[in-house]
Amino acid sequence: MKKTNILYKIFYSTLPDLSFLNKSKRLTNAERALFVLPSILDEILVGLLLGDLCAQKISEKGNTNLHFVQGIVHKDYLYHLYGLFKEFCNLESKITNRLPDVRTNKIYNQIQFHTYSLPCFNKYHELFYSTGTKIIPSNISKLLTYQGLAYWAMDDGNKTGTGFRLNTQSFTKDENLFLVKILKDKFDLDWP
């Protein structure tokens, strides 16, 4: 319990006291502007956006919200992420049933949560969705830290035999080659 309190203080020490906000109502623009992302969460978001995290805007001029979703088998991991980002959310995480998979006819449960649409998230949408689809930002070597790499691996990686795979199939071949170079140059990681 004590460890959790220390982490909480570290993560949110840069946030102003937002306890006065009525999270059951729609936030005003002035209230949205009060949210500041701690630097550690900035690093984590870069890694998560290389993985499954989605940064979305309802309209071109609107603010960005983050949509976290994982299969129910990863619920503990998603609860951990919710713990990190709960100050940026008005609702708790929820479990939902998807429609049956057309290939297997199985129903896969998932767990998800969304953040508020906030100005502090707009830069991530601009970096990762500047073309309308998710891309690898050209300055990813400056953005990606060990912390981000760890969360990318937890979010969208898996052990394979004696190795480890980061799932990057949604990115282009050139983007994947770019990532391989960065992982080698910055983190001394070799990929087959």
Radius of gyration: 18 Å
CATH architecture: Roll
Number of domains: 1
Would you list the SSEs in sequence order as H and E?
A: HHHEEHEEHHHEEH
Helix run count: 8
The shape is globular
Please report the total strand number as a whole number: 6
- Largest β sheet strand count, sense and barrel closure: 4 strands, antiparallel
Q: What is the level 1 CATH name?
A: Alpha Beta
- Helix fraction, binned, reads 25-40%
Query: Order of strands across the widest beta sheet?
Result: 1-2-4-3
- CATH homology-level superfamily: Homing endonucleases
Please tell me the overall pLDDT.
Answer: 86
Question: In whole angstroms, how far apart are the ends?
Answer: 42 Å
Q: Approximately what portion of the residues adopt beta-strand conformation?
A: 15-25%
Q: Structural class of the secondary elements? A: alpha+beta
Low-confidence stretches: none
How would you describe this protein?
Helix 3 packs across helix 7 (146-156). A hairpin with a 2-residue loop joins strand 5 and strand 6 (163-166). Helices cover 40% and strands 16% of the residues. 21% of the residues are buried. It contains eight helices and six strands; from the N terminus they run αααββαββαααββα.
State the gist of this model.
About 40% of the residues lie in helices and about 15% in strands. The chain has 8 helices and 6 strands; from the N terminus they run H-H-H-E-E-H-E-E-H-H-H-E-E-H. The longest helix has 15 residues, at about 175-185.
